[in-house]
């Protein structure tokens, strides 16, 4: 009898493990996956190209000698990240921080469960209970990132921003934390304290961890990054110049929604990329879809390959060697003449989809704003970097490459091979960014 039971158990195991594969090696099927182009991006199919300066540019050859390199396929934003797109990030973090504080205040006041109304009491913003796996909306799943108690932030009730409609004293007390004192506000506008709104995320130094043995926790670092752009760059970048309207309105006014965001340093661009990744993947998780790859800043090689648009050894994204077309119209937004910023019909930045795109469908790879890339500046890096997906990013080197030139630059900086840099913690009125996402698989199999 005992032997019979053993045989029965073995038979059941074989049947359950076999899963009708008839004993054959059929592999383990993952979640359904189809390549999906992210909204607002274009596919840049990988390949080899000659990176660096042409031989006639003797000065440029010092830090950008020609080198044949190969990059894999990736998606890239067809425009620079706009004010409107960056505000989506800012508003999400801002609202998450405020809701977290309101929920904590409701808990201290003994309010649990919350009301269903929008402005009844602090209790309306109480935590919605412990977070259960599979029981969260994308907003709630992502907002757990901010909640050390692992409770559900309430996204069902609108935040009351009008101080004349604050529901109770507890609400007033919480909201006062997020505003500057009255003596620091003017023109009847109550100013938010932007330093109160920060995005935190963790990232592993994969290159260092891959070469190490044992515990990798020391290679995981948490970053806490202020999210608001520095609007004072419009003043600080230009002495003896009237730029107050841009300081006051450029980021916040809807008239500039489709203009490229500026005043964002390299660390903020990285934080935005992480948020965009988490935001999309938590939505996909809620739909039981396979996760997609992370958004990130492009490497210097990826940026130059994309900027060239498939034109080998061209000076500009449109070819060259001139910055005008055959009708004498400028091809990009830059400083074409001494003291004359407006000869190209643009005084400062223009909408991110202005001018003609290059042959990959990418707008303003030259001009408008320079763009952060995920590469540290080293004048000698072309000599020792790999020829396959080259990138040199030294965490101790705070000089980060910017590419493409901007509205305030002369045409030399618009050349697709010209290198420039800013320090990672520097925000400028002429530096923005766009993101990329690795293509999963081989793009040649799309057709």
From TrEMBL:
The record places domain Sulfatase-modifying factor enzyme-like at 40-436
What SUPFAM superfamilies does its record include?
C-type lectin-like
Can you name the source organism? Psychroflexus maritimus
Q: Which UniProt keywords apply?
A: Lipoprotein
Q: Which PANTHER family match?
A: FORMYLGLYCINE-GENERATING ENZYME, SULFATASE MODIFYING FACTOR 1, 2
Among the Pfam families in the record, one is FGE-sulfatase
Against InterPro entries, the record matches this protein to: CTDL_fold, Glid_motil-assoc_lipo_GldK, Sulfatase_Mod_Factor_Kinase, SUMF_dom, SUMF_sf
**Alphabetized GO MF terms:** formylglycine-generating oxidase activity
- For this entry, the protein name equals Gliding motility lipoprotein GldK
Highest classification ranks of the organism: Bacteria, Pseudomonadati, Bacteroidota, Flavobacteriia, Flavobacteriales
Query: Does the entry feature the keyword tRNA-binding, yes or no?
Result: no
